[in-house]
From TrEMBL:
It comes from Caldithrix abyssi. Residues 1-22 form the signal peptide. This is Asp/Glu/hydantoin racemase. GO terms for molecular function: glutamate racemase activity. Keywords: Isomerase, Signal. It comes from the Bacteria. InterPro entries: Asp/Glu_race, Asp/Glu_racemase_AS_1. GO terms for biological process: peptidoglycan biosynthetic process. The keyword Signal applies. The keyword Glycoprotein does not apply.
Length: 507
């Protein structure tokens, strides 16, 4: 009897321990790079010894802080600047997609976005940790089939090259990624979007021309000075002799609003919100200047602006639509130039956040409106801007650099784009340490207040589905990038990794 009770006690301890391990993912102290390479965490481990290097049959990995990087991927997927028969460069291409023989693995770290806020909240170490975790995911084989799954699967393909489809991650993490790969003994090319954006901007400005260049990016990218530093380096190296001024506009709230982050947008709201963190007449960091409300030309209808008091003299103003965010930031950029002494005209704008190219038409409309904008019969901004300002998406040059690398390294594949895979991060509800708001997202304080070095599964990386992506984001993807959207749908419907999902949540 005593022996039976003893055995039952042992079994109880075993099952309690097993249950604890499956429900409460372990926490390991240390630098994420050490944890990965020393195999100190069951999820964040990587077998670099047997990594299939220089294998052209592998996919290309691409990651961003959310769904914005799909705009970069879409440009890559539709890129046609080479003749596929002999791989020679041709401006007009040959009518065949250059990457038609490749396939891609995409990760959007939606749960931890926007990345641009980590610098603002003085937590760059955590941002860098997220970036290395993103790279680990692309290199490794692990993923969760659904957000409810307690166990991960281990059959995702590793990658042969990495594209950082995020300006903030490029600015703060590219060097760290390259150092990590070198330490791991992995010869994997890393391509970031900042160098590509700089090249695109300088291509539209003459070497002896005076011009201003605008950089519209997240607060983190702006604070990193990544674009300014790279522009200055390239201006010098390429022998530009004209006076070139650089103006940066930190797009606080815009990327978050595009991805539906509740800190910046709540489409159902009809009154001011206490948890709003975007531009406002009461936010000294990103103020709405009530003296120039006419310049912003906000759309005040149907809750697109939230405020208190009378419409003629609104107070506690909050932006609640993507179009109004764009209007605010374009005006703010032009106000910087207007207040600068003797600034040359704005002749190029880099859309330095991967979310922004989804709304190129809206940006263009705002610049065109300001070119025509008058007060008291006088143009306010016309002398400060070209009539037609190129809005430059770094994605085109990113695609060009990727193709050139795969070609020179002998890594061009003969596979099928329809094999591409799409994953997104969601809060890991099996981790008792996480803190969620009423919408099931990380609270702002928790998201940006966590400390680097406490390695744990804050999130699960799961396949794209309607269940984990807001409906309006799904609609935007379908409308803006239809070819890529069809690949996402094909992944949902055909890949057995999503077999556990019901038809109701598929694209």
């Amino acid at each position: 009897m005593n022996k039976l009770l003893f055995n039952l006690a042992i079994l109880a301890i075993f099952f309690a321990s097993f249950n604890k391990c499956t429900q409460n993912p372990p926490v390991v102290e240390g630098d994420i790079r050490d944890v990965i390479l020393e195999n100190r965490h069951p999820y964040f481990s990587l077998d670099v010894t047997h990594y299939p290097q220089k294998d052209k049959t592998l996919p290309v990995g691409i990651f961003d802080s959310g769904t914005g990087g799909l705009a970069v991927l879409d440009v890559i997927l539709n890129f046609d600047k080479y003749n596929n028969s002999d791989l020679s460069y041709s401006v007009n291409g040959d009518g065949v997609r250059d990457f038609s023989g490749e396939y891609f693995v995409y990760l959007g770290d939606q749960a931890n976005m926007p990345y641009g806020n980590y610098e603002k909240e003085h937590n760059v170490p955590l941002l860098k940790e997220h970036v290395i975790k993103d790279v680990h995911f692309l290199l490794d084989k692990k993923y969760y089939p659904t957000e409810q799954a307690r166990r991960y699967k281990n059959d995702k393909s590793p990658v042969k090259a990495i594209v950082i489809a995020c300006n903030t991650a490029t600015a703060y993490g590219k060097n760290d990624i390259e150092a990590f790969l070198e330490r791991a003994g992995l010869d994997i090319k890393v391509i970031g979007v900042i160098d590509a954006g700089v090249r695109a901007a300088l291509e539209v400005i003459g070497k002896e021309e005076d011009a201003s260049i605008g950089v519209m990016a997240t607060a983190g990218t702006v604070a990193s000075q990544g674009y300014v530093r790279t522009l200055r380096e390239q201006i010098k190296q390429l022998g530009y002799t004209g006076r070139i001024e650089i103006f940066q506009q930190a797009g606080v709230g815009l990327a978050g609003a595009i991805d539906g982050a509740s800190d910046y947008i709540a489409r159902e709201a009809q009154s001011c919100r206490s948890d709003y963190r975007g531009p406002s007449d009461t936010n000294s960091d990103v103020p709405i200047d009530t003296a120039i409300l006419g310049c912003y030309n906000f759309d005040w209808s149907e809750g697109k602006m939230l405020y208190e008091g009378d419409r003629s003299r609104p107070e506690h103003i909050q932006i609640n639509s993507i179009k109004n965010y764009i209007a605010y930031h374009v005006v703010s950029l032009m106000e910087q130039i207007r207040k600068a002494p003797d600034a040359p005209p704005l002749k190029a704008v880099i859309l330095g956040c991967t979310h922004y190219p989804f709304f190129t038409d809206e940006f263009a409309a705002q610049f065109a409106r300001l070119y025509q904008y008058k007060e008291k019969g006088r143009y306010v901004y016309r002398h400060l801007m070209a009539e037609h300002i190129p809005l430059l998406d770094p994605s085109e040059n990113t695609a060009k650099e990727l193709f050139a690398y795969l070609k020179s390294a002998g890594l061009l594949n003969n596979s099928d784009l329809k094999r591409s895979e799409f994953y997104i991060s969601v809060p890991n509800r099996n981790n008792p340490n996480i803190q969620l708001d009423s919408l099931g997202q990380f609270t702002y304080a928790y998201k940006y207040g966590r400390k680097a070095g406490r390695i744990q599964e804050y999130v699960k990386r799961v396949p794209f589905s309607k269940k984990v992506i807001p409906g309006q984001t799904v609609q935007r993807l379908q409308n803006k990038i239809p070819f890529t959207f069809e690949l996402i749908r094909a992944f949902n419907r055909q890949n057995d990794k999503t077999a556990a999902l019901t038809e109701a949540v598929r694209f």
